[in-house]
Amino acid sequence: MNPSVEKSVNAMLDGVPKGVLHPASGEQKFSLQRYAPSSEAGSFVQHYWIVRWDLRGQEPYRQTVIAHPNVNLVFEKNGTRIYGVGRSTTVRLVQDHGWVIGIKFKPGGFYPLFGAPVSRLTGRSIPLEDVFGVDSAPLEEKILQAPDDQEMVSRVETFLTPHLPSPDPNAALAHELVTAIRDDRNVIKVEDAVSLSGMNKRTLQRLFDRYVGISPKSVIQRYRLQEAAVRIDRGDVTDWLELSSELGYYDHSHFIRDFRSVVGMSPEEYRQKK
To answer: Does the keyword Transcription regulation apply (predicted)?
Structure first.
């Protein structure tokens, strides 16, 4: 492993990411580790993630995640594919035993490699070959047979680095805007994102369609509902009206409708299923 990659791999990112529903249950079924990219890949890659599980003799487990606005390239035995942004939630069936490694691209970070609107991938997946022009089978075997996480990440970066194009300023802008939406609770509707960006509404929507894959409205909604799920899972919620207000919902019923439309149940039903 070259020194720059080794340094980045050792900068492991701790904690369960937002959007993993009922994480306490999932932590009993699988392990998730995240690793920062090298500086060269960092313009495009948010992080690498590795999931390992051993459920031999146990029932399969279904993990649901509120989909993030990121494209993922997942190396999995006999199933390596590029996954576009999910339309609401994504579900992973964990069974038997195994491991996978994924590249989570930054919002906007996959477009320079794809060269077409990322919205074309939304809600679907495509073979690795369609973008990178290489046979995935031997690459998949080489990466997944690495002796440890560090070497697995190193092999992924060795594959990815020669394919990286020049940085795209619009990709960087898309990432900055998505990050700002995530971090600023005052952004609760598209008009707020328009003000934040300094663009007109149509230009912002075109940017997100091409570089992110979903609309600004959808990005706002997902981040607010991810935060709601985290608060519920932590047991921090005592008043639904107060929570909806803190998340920027002026109408409590609107919050409940959004939560149900994405998660598939009401906030109270979600809490009771813990």
So the answer is: yes
